[in-house]
Amino acid sequence: MGRTAILLISCPDTKGILAEVTGFIARNGGNIIHADQHIDFQKKIFFMRIEWELSDFKIPDSQIGDAFSPIAQKFKMEWELHFSDEVKRVAIFVSKHDHCLYELLYRFKAGDFPGGDLRLVISNHLDLKELVERFGVPFYHFPVSRENKQEVEKKELELLKEEGIDLIILARYMQILSDQFVNQYRNRIINIHHSFLPAFVGAKPYHRAYERGVKIIGATSHYVTEELDQGPIIEQDVVRVSHRDSVEDMIRKGRDLEKLVLARAVKWHLENKILVYDNKTVIFD
Amino acid sequence: MGRTAILLISCPDTKGILAEVTGFIARNGGNIIHADQHIDFQKKIFFMRIEWELSDFKIPDSQIGDAFSPIAQKFKMEWELHFSDEVKRVAIFVSKHDHCLYELLYRFKAGDFPGGDLRLVISNHLDLKELVERFGVPFYHFPVSRENKQEVEKKELELLKEEGIDLIILARYMQILSDQFVNQYRNRIINIHHSFLPAFVGAKPYHRAYERGVKIIGATSHYVTEELDQGPIIEQDVVRVSHRDSVEDMIRKGRDLEKLVLARAVKWHLENKILVYDNKTVIFD
Amino acid sequence: MGRTAILLISCPDTKGILAEVTGFIARNGGNIIHADQHIDFQKKIFFMRIEWELSDFKIPDSQIGDAFSPIAQKFKMEWELHFSDEVKRVAIFVSKHDHCLYELLYRFKAGDFPGGDLRLVISNHLDLKELVERFGVPFYHFPVSRENKQEVEKKELELLKEEGIDLIILARYMQILSDQFVNQYRNRIINIHHSFLPAFVGAKPYHRAYERGVKIIGATSHYVTEELDQGPIIEQDVVRVSHRDSVEDMIRKGRDLEKLVLARAVKWHLENKILVYDNKTVIFD
Amino acid sequence: MGRTAILLISCPDTKGILAEVTGFIARNGGNIIHADQHIDFQKKIFFMRIEWELSDFKIPDSQIGDAFSPIAQKFKMEWELHFSDEVKRVAIFVSKHDHCLYELLYRFKAGDFPGGDLRLVISNHLDLKELVERFGVPFYHFPVSRENKQEVEKKELELLKEEGIDLIILARYMQILSDQFVNQYRNRIINIHHSFLPAFVGAKPYHRAYERGVKIIGATSHYVTEELDQGPIIEQDVVRVSHRDSVEDMIRKGRDLEKLVLARAVKWHLENKILVYDNKTVIFD
To answer: Which ipTM value was assigned to this complex?
Structure first.
C-alpha cells in the first residue's frame, strides 16, 4: 500500500457529512481504504477517521487542508490531517520499574511503532540509565524533590521543546506532573495505571486489590489530565487472580498486563486512531 | 430512533464506491446513522453495511431498490436491502440437549431478538416438547432414521416453506442435514459446535479435548455448509480448563459458552450484520 | 463415586495440621478424594477443604463431629462438616429484572445444583409471578415501602424460618436489606452486583461505566454484609466494550455476565467450596 | 520464607497416601506450606506436589530420599525431590524471530526466573547474535541443512552436556529436532507453537487461521515429543481477531500471546510445578 492521508473529524451530527467528505476525496482522485464513523446519539456528535491513498490524489499535501477547509467550516468540524509517513517524536518518562520501559524499547527497536521516533528517556532516578543507553537512546536524569519540582519541570519542558517531542509516555513514572506541564501536552501524555480504573485510583492499587479480595485485576492506559487517574481511558485489560495470589503474585501478573496495555495505547496514538471528547476516547482500531 | 433502511454491499474494490453510495443517500434526504466498510486487500473486495433513517427519505421503500440499481450495476455489487422493522421467521431444530433451546426461548420472549419471530421448533425426539409448548411455541416431532431421512427432510422443508421460515437455528441438533436441505437455506442455517473450531471437528469434542489435555475449550457458531463443521464461522468464545476438569466439567462449562455464542450469532444475523464471502464472515457489529 | 464427607477448616497456621487431619481420616478408613489447603502467610491462617468417601469409613455420620473434636480443639479450628447428599434450602429474591431469575430457575430444574432445593421466590413486585409459578415454584409478593420495610422484613424472615431456608440469592433484588436481616443470614446471602467491584459501588453502575468511558465492564457476586456492595467477593467476570456501546448495549452485555457470575457463586456455595475470612473468600474450586 | 523441599509424586490411587506423606514430613519437623493433590478418577492415578520448610526439618537434604524411600515403595510412587534453591541450567534455541527470545532474556535478567540459570543460546542463524551477546549470554551458531542435521545435533548435544543443561527452550526455533535428540531431554524441551493447538498443527498457523476465518487465535506451549506439535500441553492463551485483521495483524497480535504463554510454561517448569502423564500435564500453580 502506498502513502496515505488520514483525516480525523468530530462535529455536531447532521445529515450529509459522510457524503460530503467522501465526495471530496473521490472527486480529487483519492482511493479510500479505511472509513470508520461513529455517532454519539446522546450528545449528537459525529466522529470519523478516514484514510485514503495519495498516489492519484490531485491535491498536493500542503494544500489539502485549505481545500478541505470549506467543508470543515460548513459542518463546524474539529479536524486533524495526518500522513502515513509522519513520524511523531517520543519521550519516555520512567522511575525505577523497568518492565514497561523494556517493552517499549523493544518495540521501537523491532519496528512495531513505525509512526514514532523515540528521542529520549527522562528519569528521576539513575537505575535505568544503563539499560536505556544500551539501546542507544539518550538518557536524561532529572532528580525531583518537593522543593525543586517546578524548576525541574521547566527544564524538562525546555528539553522536550528542543527535541520537538510530540508524545510523552509515562512508563510507570512515579511522579505527578503539574497542571501547567499537563496543559502543554494535552492528550499527548499517555500513562499506565496498574489497576482496572476507576477501581483503586491512586497509589498501591495491587495492595488494595489484595485487601479487597477481588478475583480479577487489571491495568489501564489513559491520557493524563489535571485530575489524578481520571483522564480519558484508552485501553484496559484484566487477568484472573485467586486467594492463592499474594500481593507479590498480583504485582508480577500485573506487570504483563501493564506493558501490553501501554504498548497498545502507544500504537493507536501513533497511528492516529484515537479521538478524545468528553473525557472519553473513540478508538478507530 | 426512527425506522431505518440497511444496505449490505459487496463488490470489487475500486475508487468512489463510498462517495457514490453515501451521496445517493444524502441527496435523497437520508440521515446515515451507521456506516461500516471493510476492504479485503488481498482479494480486492469491498464490503459495506450502511444504515440510514427513513423519516425524511424521499424514496418510498418499494422504490429504493430500483433507485439504487444503477449504482449497484456500475460497481457490480451484490447487495441486500433490509428495513429495521423487518421480522425474519425463525425455526429451531433440537434433539435432547435443552440449554441452547432454553436460552433462545428466553431471549425471544424477553425481546432480545426484535428482528425475529420464532414460529416453531422441530425435534427428532419428544423430550423437549413440554418445554417448548410451555413457551407457547408450536413443536413438531420428526423422528429420523437412516431409512427415512430423505423423506423426513422433505416434510420438514414443506413445513418450513409453509411457515415462510427465513432462518433455521440448530440448537444442538444431533442430525446432519443433507446437501439438498442445506442448499435451500444457504447462509441461513446457524449451527453451534461445541468446540473451538477447527480443533475437534465432528463428534464428541469435549472428550477429545480432555484426551488432548488442552487448557482452554471453546464453542463456535457457524453457517452450515455441505462440509461438516466447515462453514463460515460467525462467533467463537473460550473458557479455561485445567487438569482438575473432568469431561463432565468441560461439558458443563462448555454449555455456558455454547448458549451465549449461539445467541450472539443469531442476534447479528437478525440485525443483518453479517456478510458471507469466501467461506468467511464479515461481522459489522 | 459414593457418598462423601466434606470438612472445611480454618485455624492459626502451625506445623502438623495436615498430617493430623489426613491421619484421622485414613485411620478410620476414609478415602480422601479431594484435599485442598491454603495458607495466608501474611495473617498466618491455615485453610483446608478435605473430602473423603464414606463407604468404608468406620465412624457413623452423627459421630464424626465428636470424633474430630479433639483435633479441632488442639489446633483452635473453626470448622464445618458437610455431606455430599446434604441439600440446602434456597430462597430467591427478585424485583423486575428476569434474566438472573430465569438462569437460576433453569439450572435448578436442569439439575445443575444438586445441593440446593429451591423452595420459594420472594419479590417486591408482581411482574415475575407468572414466570416463577410456571416453573412450579411458590411465589410470595412482599411490596416494600419506606414505611413498612421493617415490618415486611420481619414477615419475610418468618417465612424463611418456616421454610428452613439456608441460602438467600438476591437475583437483581433492588432493595437494601437491613443490618438485622443480614445478621441472621451472615455469609448466606449471595448478591449479584452489575459492575466490576469496587468500581461503581451503588446504583446505576452501567451508566457510570459509560460516563467514565471504560473499555471493560464486569459483574460481581458477593456475600451481603451491612456495608453496601462491600461484602466478600465470590466471583467476577468481565466483557469488553467500546465507544460503540451505548448504555443499553452495556446493560445487554452485562446481563450475560451477571447471570453466569451469579450461577457460579451459587454452585460453589451449594458445594461447600467457599470459606470466608477477613471479608474475603477462599474458593476451593 | 526459608529454604524448602518439594516432592512431586504420582502413583496408583489408594487410601492413605496423603496421610502417610504428610505424616512423614510432620514427624520429622517439616512445616508444610503448600500441598496440592489431584486424582485422575478415570485412570485411578494419584498426583501430589507438597512443599515444606527445611529450617527445623530433622533429616539432612542428602538423606531425605532414602528416608522417604519406604513410603515411595509401599505406594509404587514415581517421585522427584527438589529444593527451592536448586537452579536448573537453561539453553534457548532460536532462529530469526526475536520476540520470545527478548522476553526470556528480560525475565532471566529481571529475576523472574530464580530457579533458572541461562547458560547459552543456540541458533541456526546469526541474526540474533548481537542481541544475545548484549545481554552477556554466550551465543552459539549451528547452521543446519538437510545434510548435516544429524551431525549438528550431535555437536549441540555435546555442548548441552558440557554445560550441564537441564532445560531447553525452543523460542520460535524453526527446526524439527530428531527423535534421538528429543529422547535425551524428555519433558525437558519446551516449545511455543503459534496456534491454539490442536487447531493448525504444523507450519504457517496464522495463515491458516486467516484462511479459515476464525474469530480467536491462540498460542500453545508444550513439551516436545517425537510427534510434531503433539506433546503435552503446558499452557495456552487466546486473543480475539475479526475480519479486519490481516494475516500480518494476526502475527503481530499472536507475538504478544506467544511470549507470555512461553514465559508462563518456563516459570512453572523451573518451579517444579508440572507433572507429565499420559501426554498431558498436571500444573500445580
So the answer is: 0.94
